[in-house]
């Protein structure tokens, strides 16, 4: 990243679709004219020589006459070098490395007499053929001596180094510890070659050492462990006697002095691609500079390790070099892999990044939109009222009742008809215990057409005691279609009364509870009202619950008083019948608006409280057995204090049982019978105690369940009758939701207490110690009394604090909050 | 002659070498596969393919280091639990001008680095208790997802099974082969990321060269550090340094001491390295980061300035210096740094967000909207929450509390555990007398980010106003434990103490 950008002044594309290697370019003054020439060769076998003759910028641009020579070879050009490779000739020649040959060309200039300018001709001077595939070559004045002649050294892919003394073959040797070819360079001040060996060390071999055929084991003059592979090695001559070696590694840039001393190094924070070190200034005040191209396409210019300049590139070069022309001194020469050759300069005018223009917005309307949005937000209710029609239709049909064994079954058919293909449907049922539906959940996959599902409603198998408190069954279907919006719908059906009651022919006389329901219209004859039960017109109908010990409910229609009378063995058995009468009565007088009333004094509040009390008591009992604590009354001093020892009796029994088993096994190993005899008694005894305990728990649980059903039934009756006494539907609904709900494993009394106290608000202040059951019952009593009073008295209206869709949502304080307060 | 024929006569191995030099890894691997299918015993081609596969996936593993929770817990190297102030990254002093802290609990740096959260909590409990959000989860071990991914990615790219079956390699044979051993080690370490085998291999290899090659010592140290054997790693690195200074080794040693939570030793190492490599930017960056971690911002900024002297394009330095100026109430200066970053071509939501904030505080209101618009346009879900949060600040500054409230709601819709946003929203609602909502928001702010003192303080204030002195006391205590010098908290505490003693 940089403010600046490299500016192109001269660019051309060499050939079409040609590929260039990393050694394909060399910059040298071929003709001694004080101007550099660019010589490059491609893998496609084309050798090109460029010279620039144009005026200085801004007129400097590519012209076709800049291409001096273009020649097609018959094998790929791996590398080009220049040097005085012809004996007794001061001119520079071009050495071209092919995979299997080294060819030296001379360039002849034929002066032109017309506008075309001079003509350049390539002339092959000599050729060395070899049979090992070449990798790289080095040209230099090997072996010391004058700088008037250059030799060439070719490194092949298998590590052989061949030196050609101009036209003559010099010698061939192999480099030790060699695996992969790495760049090889000649260090003039030392008369040595430098490269990287397979051990990732920089090694420097003296020319004399390599040339000596008697030395089988070539020893390096110096070596230095880099620990990484290198991309390129370059040498720069500050003076003929002082050469610096620049190495570009994977993550570091090193600079060695000729004698192998590390001069400086720099850790790079990017991946480098290629580099070019050079010297600025005259000898005493030289500066060692280096240009490194990063893989993020920027060129960074370092003065030793200090970053002097960085600029962005518009393309990805694989070679960077520096050339001087009359028009432009020290310009950057860059060649990309595909033959894009450019001469560039580091522009000093910052190329400031401009953020892309934003789309122009019209703010005229925005204010109104904001106002509208705020309005919408205020009006938005929490309920999601998507007016879309459900994609699924449910039709529930009640089929006939069957008697299977002692129980009764009722088949229910559910027609599921999707309007579009739904991928999955799940149907669940909500029933009040002790009635259940089996199977409880139905999954349907890839529903495309209507289908019918059959389920059964029946009493829970092991439950013959519990009271049926409601026959309503809610069928819920959740579906998800192809469009990811899931949906749901539900339907409520009433199961037939015969599932819970049957007719008792002989009248039963000992009724402990009765209620009268007065209606405006004349009551419907029982024969029509309960078609399925009564076959002749009777003035009263007696129902018998289908439970272990029968209870009776008697209904009498009193046309004279315009009322129904219900008498029963206990109020808890009447709720279903009462609901049914109300439902059927209203159904009969469909066209009219029925007004049904009852006396508020007949509401069985006392029974409810008694049941709550019993329920809570039973719960405490269960706790004591199950959990577990043994109450030890201890008399310390004069005060009676109750110490509760929390001993988990059952678990201790269990562990005792396991220990005995272990002992048994251990004894068994001894293979003697008599040692087992006492353990025998112990294990039997423990087992017996355990089973006893467990069955006791099961019994109490069963009882608790029955008691809860009774409680539910009573509370439902309370709601139903309150509904007849009061007109305050909203509070009734809230009250209903509060006290009638299904709790499997939660404490009904605690939840109801919390919710009710929230509903009542600060009208009644309770003094509740949390854990005391007696207090809970008392407070529940106070609260329910209060609500009933408020609902039945005409003028009052219970002020409910704030509308919340679910008053049950009052949960006890979260644990995290609790410790947050205490800590 | 036809061009295509000429290039076809090129040696396959030569073009493979050349492709590797040009970073064309895929092509190189392809060529090597061709050679190997012809001659399966071509060692050079085999090694070249190995190099290409390694280089393709190698990352600068010094930069990518990250310490996992498990590592910090199972760290057996005894470190003083309660280190003296200033000697540990965990007990870094609080300065008066507090920078906001990240979810991980570190002072916010100018730049996100892999290890910015490395010194998270005091211990495992703290680390685990740090609220976990989508943006703040810490890897369980240092074999972080990044490293594991690299290992598995290599498997995917090779349809016909792994290139080298490490478990069947004859380690002593290859370790003694000087030509192959280093390349093979790099392959096992970087490409396969099989640290245990790499360690075995390095042990063999260093034996073969009579424990004299510093390179192998470094590799052994690397393996030890990856395996959590920090002290063994230290011994290896120190031994490698006997052979001569090396930037990489110094850096690794410094990182190692940071993992040991000994930032001062780390600084010593860097100082020593600086005497060898006086102008090395990476070392300076390392030191600047350590000082930042120690909350010694002036020193950190000094080093960042030194870096800019040497490398004016270092974004981390520019960003950190900009941040420093911003939090030392010089938004105009910060604006210049951030603008420089923009000019250099950095183009992301965070930058525009910072620009917007700086120009707001520097009272250049005309560009604020444009900056935030750009920021929102570039923002992803992750940082959009923060952009909206900052917009709410600007809106509060302009006095448009409605907009502020909406922006905060948007923040929370994007990141529901944004503690600061929850806190600010609570304050806004409190002003509107929605006390119970404010209360619950403050509670969730505390639950979301319990390293902020503001929600604690606000909660204390609210509780005190409501007469709930006990809660107020508990909260103000917490607030002071986070920020001991908070004046207003002390005020409340004194008042409460007076009240309690009068009872």
Description:
The complex is a heterodimer of chains A (823) and B (503). Chain A is an alpha+beta fold and 823 residues long. Helices cover 22% and strands 37% of the residues of chain A. Chain A has eleven helices and 44 strands. In chain A, the strands form ten sheets. Chain A has an eight-stranded mixed β-sheet, with no helix packed on it. A six-stranded antiparallel β-sheet of chain A has the order 37-39-40-41-38-42. In chain A, strands 2-3-4-5 form a four-stranded antiparallel β-sheet, with no helix packed on it. In chain A, a hairpin with a 6-residue loop joins β39 (540-545) and β40. Chain A is elongated. Chain A starts with a strand and ends with a helix. Residues 628-647 and 795-823 of chain A have low confidence and may be disordered. Chain B has 503 residues and is mainly alpha-helical. Helix content of chain B is 67%, strand content 0%. Chain B is built from 27 helices and no strands. In chain B, α3 packs antiparallel against α4 (43-57). Chain B is elongated and about 90 Å long. Chains A and B meet through β21, β25 and α11 of A and α1, α2, α4, α11 and α13 of B.
Helices and strands, with pairings:
The complex is a heterodimer of chains A (823) and B (503).
Chain A: E1 4-13, E2 25-28, E3 37-41, E4 46-51, E5 67-72, E6 79-83, E7 93-98, E8 101-110, E9 119-129, E10 134-140, E11 151-156, E12 160-165, E13 168-174, E14 185-187, E15 192-196, E16 201-206, H1 207-211, E17 222-225, E18 230-239, E19 242-249, E20 252-257, E21 262-267, E22 272-280, E23 287-294, E24 298-303, E25 306-312, E26 317-323, E27 331-336, E28 340-346, H2 366-379, E29 392-404, E30 407-418, E31 422-430, E32 435-438, E33 441-447, E34 451-459, E35 472-481, E36 486-494, E37 501-503, E38 513-519, H3 526-529, E39 540-545, E40 552-558, E41 563-568, H4 575-588, E42 596-598, H5 605-627, E43 629-635, E44 640-646, H6 649-670, H7 677-725, H8 729-739, H9 748-760, H10 773-792, H11 815-822
Parallel strand pairs in A: 1-25
Antiparallel strand pairs in A: 1-28, 2-3, 3-4, 4-5, 6-7, 7-8, 8-9, 10-11, 11-12, 12-13, 14-15, 15-16, 16-17, 18-19, 19-20, 20-21, 22-23, 23-24, 24-25, 26-27, 27-28, 29-30, 30-34, 31-33, 31-35, 32-34, 35-36, 37-39, 38-41, 38-42, 39-40, 40-41, 43-44
Chain B: H1 3-8, H2 12-21, H3 25-38, H4 43-57, H5 69-74, H6 124-129, H7 145-157, H8 171-176, H9 181-191, H10 195-208, H11 214-226, H12 230-241, H13 247-259, H14 263-276, H15 281-293, H16 297-310, H17 315-327, H18 331-343, H19 349-361, H20 365-378, H21 381-398, H22 401-414, H23 419-431, H24 435-448, H25 454-466, H26 469-482, H27 487-502
